[in-house]
Amino acid sequence: MTGRDQRRDSLGPYRTPPRGTMPVPDTLAFLHGRWRLERRLDDHRSGVRGTFAGEAEFAVTDDPAVLCYEERGELRFGMHAGPARRALLLRGLPDGAADVRFADGREFYVLDLRPGRWTARHGCGEDTYVVSYLVRADGWLEERWHVTGPRKAYDSVTTLRRLGAAGPGLS
């Protein structure tokens, strides 16, 4: 990339996301660490659009097979602007995938980043949540949610970029 092709922004020196996807050997090892995140939200019922910007961390717990995911930042949605957070638990599976659970332990979905892309579904009442992940590069992950049903209809796109010089791993 030449100097004129680069753009420095909060997500790093990239003009556009890398093309394609990158396989990873293990989902938890890839995710472990701190990330900068930016999210776009589009509510198709109300027409309201929003953003969320902040940091996320996939941190080791007392159980080395479990990472605790927590994101914190500022949500701007319609007239609302204020702090927001989300927490999940990820338990490593023997094959290198992860069982994603809500913070209270309820089942959510299975995540397998090893092929570099993954799609999972979660039913919540009559609403359906479909999440797709793309590993764009070492330290670059995209998460897309498409939610439909009688109560909800929205899309969100999140870009996560690893903070710091540390690469993937549970060291």
Protein architecture, described:
By secondary structure, the protein is mostly beta strands. It has one helix and twelve strands; from the N terminus they run ββαββββββββββ. The chain has a ten-stranded antiparallel sheet with strand order 8-7-6-5-4-3-12-11-10-9. It has a two-stranded antiparallel ribbon with strand order 1-2. The longest helix is centred in the N-terminal third of the chain and has 5 residues, at 27-31. The two termini are 31 Å apart. The relative contact order is 0.22. The model is unreliable at 1-15 (pLDDT under 50).
Short account of what is shown:
This protein has 171 residues and is mostly beta strands. Helices cover 3% and strands 58% of the residues. The protein contains 1 helix and 12 strands, in the order E-E-H-E-E-E-E-E-E-E-E-E-E.
Chain-wise SSE layout:
Layout: E1 8-9, E2 12-13, H1 27-31, E3 33-43, E4 49-60, E5 66-77, E6 80-92, E7 98-102, E8 107-111, E9 117-124, E10 127-137, E11 140-148, E12 154-162
Antiparallel strand pairs: 1-2, 3-4, 3-12, 4-5, 5-6, 6-7, 7-8, 9-10, 10-11, 11-12
The fraction of residues in strands falls at over 45%
The biggest sheet, with number of strands, parallel, antiparallel or mixed sense and barrel status, is: 10 strands, antiparallel
Order of helices and strands: EEHEEEEEEEEEE
**Cα end-to-end separation:** 31 Å
Strand-pairing-aware structural class: mainly beta
* CA radius of gyration: 16 Å
Poorly predicted ranges: 1-15
